[in-house]
Amino acid sequence: MEKLVIQGGVPLSGEVRISGAKNAALPILCAGILTPDPLHVENVPHLRDVATTLSLLGQMGVEISLDEKGVVSLTAARLNNRVAPYELVKTMRASILVLGPLVTRFGEARVSLPGGCAIGLRPVDQHIKGLQAMGAQIDIEQGYIHAKAQRLKGARLVMDLVTVTGTENLLMAAALAEGTTVIENAAREPEVVDLANCLNAMGANVSGHGTDVITIGGVSRLHGATYRVMPDRIETGTFLVAAAATGGEIRLKDTRPDMLDSVLSKLIETGAAVDNGPDWLRLRTNGHVAAVNIRTAPYPAFPTDMQAQFMALNAVAQGTSIITETVFENRFMHVQELRRLGADIEVEGNTAVVRGVRTLGGANVMATDLRASACLVLAGLVASGQTVVDRVYHLDRGYECIEEKLSQLGARIRRAR
Ligand code: EPU
Q1: Ligand 1, atom nearest to 121 Cα
Q2: For residue range 240-257, what is the model confidence (pLDDT) as tens digits?
């Protein structure tokens, strides 16, 4: 199994490019199912989750081509298999995103139930309830969601809770439904907005995206389009925290500062200086990091996908901080590993109390999920001596060329078997 070996203690400095957003690319690739015409998707990051999505679409009969610029072209003219098998869904929960597109365009889908994962139970009841309200007949058979419908009908969908992929699945389903669908208590995440913009480029009639009420006027056919995936706000935030934690100065290009308000205001609260243009960000530190309290919640509040990285930052900050995780019930798996590096953290329910220590010391640690892995890499960059982060495959799901980008910023990091 591959590992990352890090010699810590080097302040990061320099410039890197931010990749396309994983969590926008995955639903946008699945939107390719909605039309028989080619969908050309630009700025698709090279990630394991993208590869998994492409093999899922490929085994359904979607024709896929990749050019040297990273543009992925999908043609779902001859899709002949409407099944997302357990073997793929268990490696990537986002496979559930084929459910809405398959049932709305082809009238049938069989998608394996995702089951639990490292960060929590993560049910998909809201996806199912929404499709049922639009007229789909849904049975759970042998661990699979079997959805059938003639043509879905527009409906008023009031979500019980804010769900990102749930909103995305229903948005795609409603795009080809008969009549108007209104999704209330919809997710406002920028990735939902990116998907809606892509659907509109394909001829859909979506409005209100970016607010908690999205209205979709169903159309009978969508056409092909060329669409560029937005920059990854979580990758952006992760590099900024890495610079703040190591006492460095970095510039990130090809990103979008306007999607990061809650993260940037927390970084400024730590004492970092942040400035930006429309597509770049620069962060400088004065060597002191003040501890900051964090409470995760749906966008535009502080993202759960940045919680672990801020835990690493707070672990070496001045003062004590309280981190409250409200989105997932079990997203503190990194705490045990941070303690192995010398962090002083106590967990009570969904709250962690982090007492900043002067320094961390390198050790062998094990990654448990994507963002927990990022947190351990950041801690390793700060720690004195050598840190070995095992199970790097988690990181490869969501960070493109992480060790190359960190090396470019001066980090001493290498991959080993
Ligand atoms: N939930 C339900 N029922 C549902 C759907 C969700 O109870 O039908 C619960 C979940 O269990 C969770 C909460 O609602 O407690 C929010 O989950 P959500 O559905 O919003 O999460 P998701 O759509 O499965 C996406 C991202 C995650 C990110 C979350 C929250 C993708 C592919 N994944 O997951 O990204 O943490 O939204 O912002 O977009 C990551 O990139 O590391 C990652 C985990």
Answers
A1: 11
A2: 999 999 999 999 999 999
